[in-house]
């Protein structure tokens, strides 16, 4: 079945984040994505510890609640793990290798590329001919992926894709900004990740913590100094906010004035026509952006 055919396809994006689960239900027709429903539920801290699901039945129950609230049972789904649970490394492989040969090479030497990890890994990779380190290797522990997939499928969704939140985020950001340099501050509870892409490649990341207003401002100042000194890349000093942004909204004006930045709330839904009330959708748009970005990925043909 080809999900990108001329018939409408109904897709589910389910994003696992540190403190919540978010589901977005989308109808895709040709290149248009219409949101049919969305819901989020808080994720208690003891459900998932160090990336491993400790209470799978309770996680399945939460997912089932999201499915019931959005009428999504039985649909195909793309799911995502937080980037903190995933290993990323740029490696170099000969450009003449075929994709199958690349995969075989990585599989054979995975312990060399990612030393010190004894658990079984699932991996994927992206090739970039223009880069000296021409392969981005992304890997996750098998237990993390299979436990989440089992929880989702037990809740009656059909998992087609397992992705990483920052890549889903970037797909949605493409609907908002066409700038050559894209900067995003993605908040996940009290933890944020500042990410800068250049030509679809991550060139800078920095973790940031919301301990206090003053400390947060200091961290923002420090990360900008580090970015400017290590990359020397000019940009328009516009930062898009995504994720759970409510906690930092009171700081936006202070940060803009102090650091001479322009901060905007991410909303990838403005250009589309949706089956839910726009006001409600726009209000929670930053929280939905990863789950929505999952529905933008091309689904495989099975």
CATH topology of the largest domain: Nucleotidyltransferase, domain 5
Shape assignment = globular
- H-E string: EEEEEHEEHHEEHEHEEEHEHEHH
Counting helices, strands and paired strands, the structural category is: alpha/beta
Structure description:
The chain has 302 residues and is of the alpha/beta class. It folds into three domains: 9-84 and 142-171 and 288-295, 2-Layer Sandwich (Nucleotidyltransferase, domain 5), CATH 3.30.420.40; 86-141, Dna Ligase, domain 1 (2-Layer Sandwich), CATH 3.30.1490; 177-265, 2-Layer Sandwich (Nucleotidyltransferase, domain 5), CATH 3.30.420. It is built from nine helices and 15 strands. It has helices spanning 56-70, 99-108, 110-113, 142-154, 165-173, 213-231, 252-259, 278-283, 285-295, and strands spanning 9-16, 20-29, 32-42, 48-49, 52-53, 76-81, 87-91, 121-127, 135-141, 158-164, 181-188, 191-198, 201-209, 238-243, 262-265. The strands form four sheets. A five-stranded mixed sheet has the order 3-2-1-6-10. A five-stranded mixed sheet has the order 13-12-11-14-15, sandwiched between helices. Strand 4 (48-49) and strand 5 form a beta hairpin. Helix 1 (56-70) packs across helix 4 and helix 5 (165-173) crosses helix 9. Mean pLDDT is 90; it is low at 1-6.
């Amino acid at each position: 079945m080809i999900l990108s055919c001329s018939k409408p396809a109904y897709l589910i994006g389910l994003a696992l984040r540190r403190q919540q689960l978010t589901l977005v239900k989308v109808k895709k027709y040709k290149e248009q994505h219409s949101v049919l429903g969305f819901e989020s539920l808080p994720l208690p801290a003891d459900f998932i510890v160090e990336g491993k699901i400790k209470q799978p039945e309770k996680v399945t129950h939460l997912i089932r609640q999201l499915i019931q609230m959005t009428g999504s049972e039985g649909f195909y789904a793309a799911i995502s793990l937080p980037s903190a649970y995933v290993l990323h490394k740029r490696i170099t492989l000969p450009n003449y290798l075929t994709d199958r040969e690349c995969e075989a090479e990585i599989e054979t030497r995975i312990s060399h590329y990612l030393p010190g990890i004894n658990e079984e890994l699932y991996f994927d990779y992206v090739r970039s001919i223009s880069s000296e380190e021409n392969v981005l290797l992304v890997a996750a522990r098998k237990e993390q992926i299979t436990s989440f997939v089992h929880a989702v499928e037990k809740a009656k969704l059909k998992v087609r894709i397992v992705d990483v939140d920052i890549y889903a985020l970037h797909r949605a950001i493409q609907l908002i900004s066409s700038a050559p340099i894209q900067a995003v501050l993605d908040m996940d509870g009290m933890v944020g990740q500042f990410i800068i892409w250049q030509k679809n490649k991550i060139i800078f990341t920095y973790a940031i913590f919301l301990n206090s207003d003053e400390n947060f401002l200091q961290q923002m100042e420090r990360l900008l100094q580090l970015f400017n000194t290590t990359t020397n890349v000019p940009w328009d000093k516009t930062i898009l906010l995504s994720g759970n942004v409510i906690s930092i909204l009171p700081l936006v004006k202070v940060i803009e004035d102090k650091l001479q930045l322009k901060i905007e709330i991410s909303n990838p839904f403005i250009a589309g026509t949706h089956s839910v009330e726009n006001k409600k959708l726009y209000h929670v748009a930053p929280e939905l952006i990863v789950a929505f970005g999952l529905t933008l990925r091309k689904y495989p043909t099975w």
